[in-house]
Amino acid sequence: MKKHKFYLLAAIIISAAGLVYCSKQKDNLNNSESEKTASSRSTEAVGTTSTPIQIYGVWHAGNEACGWSTERNMTEFDAANHWLIDRGNGQPSVNLVVLSFVNPLKLLNKTTDAQTLNGLPRGMTQAVVNYFKTRGIRVMLSIGGITYTNDWNSALAQNATQLGLNAAEVAVNMGVGIEIDYEQSNAPNLTGLQSFITAYRSVLPYDASGNNHAARLTIDLAAGDRWLIDICRKATADWLRTDTPVLDYANAMVEARQASSAAAAQANWQEHIDGKSNYSPVIPPLAPCKFTGAVYLVTGKSAAPECNNFNNSLAKSTGTYVQSVVPNGAGTSPGMLGYMYWAAECPSSRRICTTPPNSCENGVGTGATFYNIQIPMPTLRQQ
Fold this sequence. Notes:
TIM Barrel, eight-stranded parallel beta barrel, 12 strands, two-stranded antiparallel sheet
């Protein structure tokens, strides 16, 4: 059994057992010959021109493993998350926070129940959004995650257009962007997803300036090109083009576990840049300026260097690559958009939380200083 299928099955079993767990599902296939080739390519693909990192953000799981079902006391929320708005010098540690996750089926039906208010988790309040936005940190809501894959399928089948309109309404009302996290690896409903995107864009057209926060619409792809293949192919070919952009950018998600080395992480990202000409149909190359790479903040019961020791982190050792990898068939400027970290606060009862004494000023925060991250986020490169 392929490893990604194992982790998908494990996530289902964990959910059925009622354990507290949420996930950005990942691509973690065996180290195939194509992966080794990509690793070699990633070394060769680093150019001499460096571009600044523009996106430096976290997915935020809340304190209920991505459930967000309970409205937060903002004093308590600040105590748990203050490191995100203050790296120790009064400056935020990130310029983007993505609240994860919204159930797409409940959003479609504008459900109100014990956990949900008019389609949104009760914990995803304007107060939480404003906690970050008043510090210059952009906020987005992520729709989906591996737990809600079947709900994505149901919502797209029932009324994809209305789902897109409802998402746009939330974005406008709250002043946030929207992230598509549809993790259907087998026969995804791409027609429905296109209808969702078309409906969203009918209300909020693509805004290259980034000034309208609600107009920011992004998508999550696997760490490399070997999982979520159909979604990756469609997104790269039609939605993430530099000449006719539809989505702002993609996030290459984390693997099933932290990459073992900078070369391993870069090999995944290089797959997006190179595309897959050996696939049928092919996956075209993705412009480096159209995606971010992701790393973990914690691993099991321990904080990763990304959280507490930036100098030993993948976020530092991959920095030259992320800032200077050259295009290979799409785009003209070197360098990816930046980094996303999985995940702030408590994504799982099986992992430690990024709350004191395990907050991440010395990892993410130090990295923000090292890379001179702009806050607020600057206008994103388009080519």
